[in-house]
């Protein structure tokens, strides 16, 4: 007997279905994460002249490039050695050697970053040995700079891949630490898909008068100016600054969970002075970022930044009535979620459902502390390892006023009849958002604008004539 479609539609909105949905163990539906090599590719784009080289299948590479091009609306350069069935049986060494030779000859990179897909990892390809053989066979010059990373996608996510690749760059290409350090602060943004954020960090560091290197910096690669002339390598952290990276005066990590392996390497193995701050989203986290830079670099906070802070606080006060007491659901990467939750708590917003497919137990603990620190955090539950189908059940059974997350959230938001404010990766159905910073005091203004105005739009759209007011 067939069940009417309307009955099924109602049933999947019910608390009974939610319970079954949350009991699901062996099936993932639309996870809020991508695979490791995608993160490695973004990291590789951040070094000047670097060509990302995917050791694995062509389809995976097409998926990474496609995802990034849809988000940035820019061409994203990366090559693949196109492993097929034969390589899966006999190993991918010949693919890698021939691929390196072709890529070096055709695209004339200044350096390359080699990382793997599932196929290469399942068969256990030893890319270090293969690259050594490529040099011996003169497929590439003996001294050609190459960074390597194993990025198996059956564990971790895009943030793990980003971390592995960044560590690979430092291990493979940075010169050993000498005793005489140079006075340069290395700032690691972490997995951050906003060129607007990277530019905001650079602007703030310039105002503070700090000598710094952003490691890595793909802002000009994923957001190159349209001058009518195509540049294969339009920017990035210079190789010379990567080579000097272990002689930094200190390291400042602007995320916690997307660079944990790199942090351990810098702090515990290289013994370089290191600080970590939460992603500077919101006034409190921006204050922490600026104060930490100020202490590490011995610079005072100029009046220009004090005024910026004052304007952000003023904007927060103006918009407070529209955000205070509103209930939110959020999904995305752990560092982003931590920053956004902190910002919402500052504004008197009430986070309720927080979905993190790729969050760790350490992230859950940090979130618990953050939520416990505010009266507005008491209703929140952090759902680790859950996906967007779980999120849909939550939105339909325990309603909130707004969803915050990337474009993938639009279906659940529509079913729940609430607005989606698009923050995160990927954003494929709105333009330009990646160009607007969500970090720093400028980010506070942008977040307030997006969130408060989305509520006001909703109010105008749903008001009856009697309540359709000029003033809001
Ligand atoms: S999960 Fe594995 S097979 Fe799928 S795109 Fe990523 S690397 Fe390729």
Describe this structure in words.
The chain has helices at residues 5-12, 15-23, 36-45, 58-72, 85-90, 93-107, 118-122, 127-136, 158-173, 195-208, 219-222, 239-243, 260-269, 283-297, 303-323, 334-346, 361-372, 388-397, 410-416, 440-462, and strands at residues 50-55, 79-80, 111-116, 146-149, 185-188, 212-214, 250-253, 274-276, 327-331, 350-356, 381-384, 402-405, 420-422. By secondary structure, the chain is of the alpha/beta class. The protein starts with a helix and ends in a 10-residue tail after the last helix. The mean pLDDT is 96. It has three domains: 36-173, Rossmann fold; 185-224 and 233-303, Rossmann fold; 320-466, Nitrogenase molybdenum iron protein domain (Rossmann fold), CATH 3.40.50. Iron/sulfur cluster (SF4) binds at residues 35, 37, 60, 63, 117-118, 153.
Question: Summary?
Answer:
The chain is of the alpha/beta class and 472 residues long. It has 3 domains: 138 residues, Rossmann fold; 111 residues, 3-Layer(aba) Sandwich (Rossmann fold), CATH 3.40.50.1980; 147 residues, Nitrogenase molybdenum iron protein domain (Rossmann fold, 3-Layer(aba) Sandwich), CATH 3.40.50.1980. The protein contains 20 helices and 13 strands.
